[in-house]
Design a protein that fits this description.
18% helix, 2 domains, alpha+beta, 4-stranded antiparallel beta sheet, single chain, 5-stranded antiparallel beta sheet, OB fold (Dihydrolipoamide Acetyltransferase, E2P)
């Protein structure tokens, strides 16, 4: 079966309304599945919900790095974040730069479970170097450093959910 025949078969299946077709010929087999109406409804709902999630105001927490563990927490630690340049590094009070998440998703610190971490505390990173991956809707997006420097602190655990504009790493320039 050649590529043109496969494309014609796909068109036929999508127009016919059947949910699955399997064909086997001389050492070749193909299965074509279509989405049910329920699956299409779920996907459409997710597409309409995503812009609403992205438009919600985001909050960031500013906690001084020099606070001792026994010191009381600041009385008003919540401040409104700025909407411009979401992944741009931000200067903190201690002279550190923050690498923030440019999207909502799940952060992974390594390219696959059997591979080494992208970065660890103490590693030197260059501008444009991949520091983590964020999975959003089954797409894996490499997150690159916007600055050069040394990783001082990793603020999110591996395989943890992250929000838009959430701080991920602190970098000493």
């Amino acid at each position: 079966m050649n590529q043109k025949e496969i494309q014609e078969l796909i068109r036929f299946v999508s127009k016919s309304g059947v949910s699955e077709v399997s064909i086997s010929q001389e050492g070749f087999s193909i299965t074509i599945k279509t989405q049910s109406d329920d699956e299409k409804d779920v996907i459409n709902k997710m597409r309409t919900m995503q812009p609403m999630m992205m438009s919600q105001p985001q909050m960031s927490y500013n906690v001084p790095m020099s606070v001792a563990p026994s010191a009381p927490a600041p009385s008003n630690p919540v401040t409104q974040s700025s909407p411009e340049a979401p992944s741009a590094p931000v200067n903190t009070d201690a002279g550190l730069l923050t690498i923030k998440s440019p999207m909502i998703g799940t952060m992974y610190r390594r390219p696959s479970p059997d591979k080494e971490l992208f970065v660890k505390v103490g590693d030197t990173v260059a501008k444009g170097q991949v520091v983590c991956i964020i999975e959003a809707m089954k797409l894996f997006n490499e997150i690159e450093s916007e600055v050069s420097g040394t990783i001082v602190k990793i603020l999110v655990d591996d395989s943890s959910p992250v929000e838009y504009d959430q701080p991920l790493f602190l970098v000493q320039p």
